[in-house]
Amino acid sequence: MQSRPSFRGGIAATLLALPLFAQAQSLPERIDFYVEAKALAAGQPLSPATGDEEFLRRVCLDFAGTLPSSEALAAFVRDPSPDKRAKALERLFEAPAFSERMAEAFNVMLMERNGENERWRSYLAEAFRAGKPWDVMAREIINPDFKEEALRGAGFFITRRLEKVGQQETDYPGLTRDTGRFFMGVDLQCCQCHKHLTVGDYKQVDFNGLFVAFQNAKLQEVSGEKKGASLAEGLLAKKYEFVSVLSGTKGETGPRVPFGVEVPIPPLAKEEQWLEAPDPKKKIPGVPRFSPLKELAERLACAENPYFARNLANRLWFLVMGRGLVEPLDLIHSENPPSHPELLDLLAAAIVEHKFNIKSILRELVHTRTYQRSSLLPEGAKETPEALFACAAERPLSAEQLMRSFLAATGESERVVESKGWEGVDGAKYGKKDFEKVFAAAFANAAKEPELSVNPTLKAALFLRNNELVLWSLKRRPGNLIDRLCALEDAGPIAEALYGSVLSRQPTPEEKAETAAFLAKHETSREKALGRYAWALLSSIEFFTNH
Amino acid sequence: MNTLCKPWEHEVSRRQFLGTAAGALACGALGGLASAHAGEAMRGKEKQVLFVWLDGGMSQLESWDPKPDTQFGGPFRAIPTSIPGVHISELMPRCAKQMHRLSVVRSLCTKDNSHSAGVARIQRGDPKNRGVVYPFFGSAVAKLMGPTQSKLPPYVWIKPGSGGFITEDAGFLGPKYGSLAFGDGKPPEDLLRHASLSHEEDEERNELREMLNRRYAKRHRPAFTEASSYVFDTARELMARADIFDTSKLPAREVERYGRTQIGQHMLVARNMLEAGVRFVKVNSYGWDTHGDHFNGHVSLVRKFDRAFAAIIEDLAASGLLEHTLVVAMSEFGRTPRINGHIGRDHWPEAWSVAMAGTGLKPGSLVGATNDKGTFVKDSGHDIGALFHTWFSALGINSEKVEYNNHGQPLPVAHDEMTPIKEILA
Hints:
The complex is a heterodimer. Helices cover 50% and strands 5% of the residues of chain A. By secondary structure, chain A is mainly alpha-helical. Chain A has 3 domains: 10-97 and 305-388, no CATH class; 114-300, no CATH class; 395-546, no CATH class. In chain A, the strands form 4 sheets. In chain A, strands 1-2 form a two-stranded antiparallel sheet. In chain A, helix 2 runs antiparallel to helix 15 and helix 11 crosses helix 12 (204-214). In chain B, helix 1 (14-24) runs parallel beside helix 10 and helix 8 (252-258) crosses helix 9 (262-276). By secondary structure, chain B is α/β, with parallel strands linked by helices. Chain B has 2 domains: 28-37 and 48-187 and 251-424, Alkaline Phosphatase, subunit A; 189-245, no CATH class. The two termini of chain B are 18 Å apart. Classes of the chains: A mainly alpha, B alpha/beta. Chains A and B meet through helix 20, helix 25 and helix 26 of A and strand 6, helix 6 and helix 7 of B.
């Protein structure tokens, strides 16, 4: 698709475009309608569609978490079939890497680099592999079942946050806040002590309705067969009372989903209180008949709670488009309208219709023109407002995406990740763990910081320039990138191999000429010079973003 | 006017002597790297900041505002200082000799008394809540003043524990204005050029990278390219000046004078960084939270601080840097006059002290006072917002006019209902 002519005059343009909507049947078409009508009304030209190379690089990074191989890229470009993009997407969605990549993305989102846990990661990966709906996942995370082996991992979201840090009090407020943020898109932190000062919708009771359920549960270390962190819910017999530190107004609430209806606390006779009584001697937590967490999980993670679907819509949109329809992602409220209100409604409704199946919603999103638009600015433009989605956003690559792409590009993936091909290799040997460690240190955000935007750091710059593992990867070794380049004689094929492996595209004639000039200058020390050239490409912005 | 010599003018400063001598001998012959850098930074006469953060609460009664022989005064005496008639705690004999260079406010009256709120509240200057997170003082200065001509990172934080790149401090200004933290005073990893590369090779590959980025930037949004260039440029400057971060080469006599303590060594690194031209250096000292066994605790803490702080004031004065460097030493709050059951003092924001020195301030000035028991301030107290105004004024920033622009939202740089403490400004 070429960039459209820009019409001035908002309403007229929207009306002009309306017949398009009548014909728009599929979800992707309806999504594109809203995006393009708004851009048109704003007089904002659209960027062209991605070329094949840009497309394949983008989808591989998004759904396999790494770059396409230069062979796959060449084959894709050569393929004349008109539905090759759909086929490529389908292959990616069905590959095992998809669930790993989604588990990775959701781990970073939900835990914000606040610790790793294998059981949690395999819970997420298995959920995405099996196509578990998001409402089921959310319920399993908010009300974890530590007795079911396959579900125990989901409990990490809560147990990690309840771990004691030094002398600080158990962070129930933090857990309450994060539950609101990640499952409903609302940051209620301010409402712990008073009504929100800038958001009219957020009241003190909205925070405390969640808080009362969480602070009723204690972190408990279980020994024996089910060894590990577990949660012991207590008996909740009365409402939680709170006072506004600003107005002194008192309030009270039982368990309650924010903006929802309070769950009545049932009066239970003493002998009725436990379904399974706790065993303090064996340190086995009990199961109360009235479980606030269960009540909340069921009421929060369901189609009846509009925030639940809207949050997922906004976060999935963010995942593939690089910016939420509502920004910040965790400040959904009536006075912070989405950039495209009808579009968010549409997506939220579709999510309910698709029964919270994440993969099937992503499938729809990636088939839009909006997703497949180039990140090149429209001809002549110096800038375009991000919230219009008229041009694809450049998205940061996670530390994990970067590490895999770096190893793939330098041709060291097999040796480092799969421990193959080390025969006859002298000097230092590095493994996957070594690379994971240094890449996370250089590129991951600080713990508990949302990892949302491209954030170049001095640390990362120093890492790229001087780190031993980076420079190690650019030394000649059998079969790696520098080795393959050294085997080539002419500058043309060398430039093609370099750009293809690192930037997933063919060089322009200008770039080929630069490579030739560079090689001519370093005729006597080509191997080392190629290492420097590859370094320059690997540390360029083009390599470092999903553009 | 008193035309007699002040006692301190008879002291021959060793560093002053060295500095002069080094200048005469074309820099470096005697003073080594540090003195050479001092000369360099002075030529620019650019304003700089040293911010000493005592995490927790330093007791005003055991430091700048002693009340000996009173109900809450504690066991220590007060000693005379280089300003006739002004006394401070006997735990600070070295600072007492620097008093004529300091400006002390004894009438701080702030609000929060909890740590979680205190650190951020004080270091962000507690502006009115406008729904955004305000930057720490260091990030604010990095934003408003940028790096000096040295191009070194504008905001460096020397602290115990881990180092790295701390973005939280920057608040709404964005991660670019965060601090570069030297954990345990050590430089960040990967600072030194890799052994396999010559300087020329390193420069060549970097020029290639810049060329690629320029081409990419022509057809893409500018924001990311700008941020990326910025960090790479800073990395280059840092690498070029790696020598100043090498603590292993500090002369033993200097180390001794600052004290072989964490705060002493960190203060010495801070001096070198200021001399090299870092715009804002923050030095952190932890453990100022003596709810129990307060007096023994403060003997140890205050004495270490005294040695380090007096040494850096003396050095900055001797090298001339103090003329254009603002120095602030403060904590989150003071400590309660009342002594608790654990022989401790708790948090007390009602009446406490801050010590400052350097550019834009009246040397040897003393502002505000507490009542006889030290429980509350006499007259009106000064909140943290007033201090931010004072600091900005001292740095030549009109804090009542200058505003941030947060994506179109104008925001005052300091609390807009407060004003500078005029009595202390030069």
